């Protein structure tokens, strides 16, 4: 049982599959039917069935992004965009079958499948179904004779009016094009016009789920997630901590990075209600610390004191950004901005690596004046120093040694 719908923007094949527990009836791939499907078509598979252990129906409407080719599910090998699954107790198979047919009919409607593409929650789908029912002509089962042929309309009604006039609960207009990948206009990024308005709205949104973020984690199934997050948080902290210790001559090393990441991670998780957020040192932080330490060293400034002032100013600016709802500007940040910033960091690391390679020639210069014919005739011998260092003289005095008593030619150099 299937029906075909084709439009200029989206093409669907809506299909209802009747599941008889414990068997599933599938059709063979129909290549003749495949020839009638326009290019770019996507499938909506409707699966209904009965299960013995269920006491009440379970319904799921899934939108897959991007569309995936699921072998053995559709009659024809095309990508599946939507899945409607309805499972219920035994004895109500006929009702479930009719619901599946209704969903398949809904998906053939040009306006409703646009709603399904752009819906963000269950209310959008319900609004689309209500709008579809408002436009449908319903015949009561006891008021008409099935043997009488109903004449079709002379002209197919235009759907443009439905697209323009139908508003979704979230403010979208059905038929209005929207970029799914570039959608950053959620309620979290809307300016409130009040001081700390966005912060208060975040608290209201996260308040009902605050305790569940922790209570849901008390499960054996979360052990693997704990270990993964532990390694994911620990690895960059230790790695960049070691690099920071080398860059700052031990002012900030792995121990300090680990302690700081622990405190900030705990505070962020408690106040933000997001214990799964990964925090730690990153490449940009390392680059900034290197530049700051070099600046302090050149101008004779205290690195840790200046770093403390920078941290306090950063905290003040963050509070100011939160108070003015400046996070709403994130909607203007595109993928290009992220890639450009990441490219800058990569260029800095590549430049530093090449710079270190060039400096190796200064610390360990090549001896270009060697005579290869006399390579095996070179020798090394110890002689009495003409101007011994203070440490050497002190060592001789402590051990009561004089230079004339040492047999220099017998000494050997251990490498």
TrEMBL record:
Question: Which keywords accompany this UniProt record?
Answer: Cell membrane, Ion transport, Membrane, Transmembrane, Transmembrane helix, Transport
Compartments in which it is found: Basolateral cell membrane
Residues forming the Bicarbonate transporter-like transmembrane domain are 194-410
Q: Which residues cross the membrane?
A: 12-29, 222-245, 265-288, 300-324, 336-354
Specify the domain of life of the species encoding this protein. Answer: Eukaryota
Q: Principal localization?
A: membrane
Annotated Band 3 cytoplasmic domain ranges read: 30-146
Does the keyword section mention Membrane?
Answer: yes
Q: List the SUPFAM superfamilies hit by this protein, alphabetically.
A: Phoshotransferase/anion transport protein
* Record's keyword annotation contains Metal-binding: no
The membrane topology term of the UniProt record is: Multi-pass membrane protein
State the protein's name. Answer: Anion exchange protein
Biological source species: Xenoophorus captivus
